[in-house]
Amino acid sequence: MQLDDTLLAFFKRPLMCIIAGSDADGRPSAGRGVGLDVLDDRQTIDVIFSAWQWPRLEADIRQTGRVAATFVSPSDYVSFQLKGTASLLDTGAHDLDRAERFMSAATNELQSLGVPRQIIGPWLTARDARVTRITVSEIYIQTPGPLAGMLAGARAR
Question: N or C: which terminal CB in the chain sees fewer CB atoms within 10 Å?
Fold first, then answer.
């Protein structure tokens, strides 16, 4: 499923991200994403997370190859969830740079909304960064309101 221009613009905003997976027995795991990159095909996205902070997430992605990543704009709660198949990639210097920019933008945005910087710090770390590559198969609107939970592009009935 390709990301449309609206989603591409959304991904340029300061965002927060939660990645969720599960093991082979269906036990859930979750972690905070700290960086992203939409690939040129517009249906693949790389999400960076800390394996130090979220070790079960890394193990579950390796085991099942499935994830859901939810992205939220802190300033207005516009939110989208992307689901798909996932794999883990080697982390390069460009991924760490991407994570730094993402974390800086998120920190600045949250701070502008009144969240003290010292509270934000523990939420966002790229220690032992990993990259999960997601081939997107489903996109859901998660913004609170009448469209929440609907497939992106679907119309309310």
Answer: C
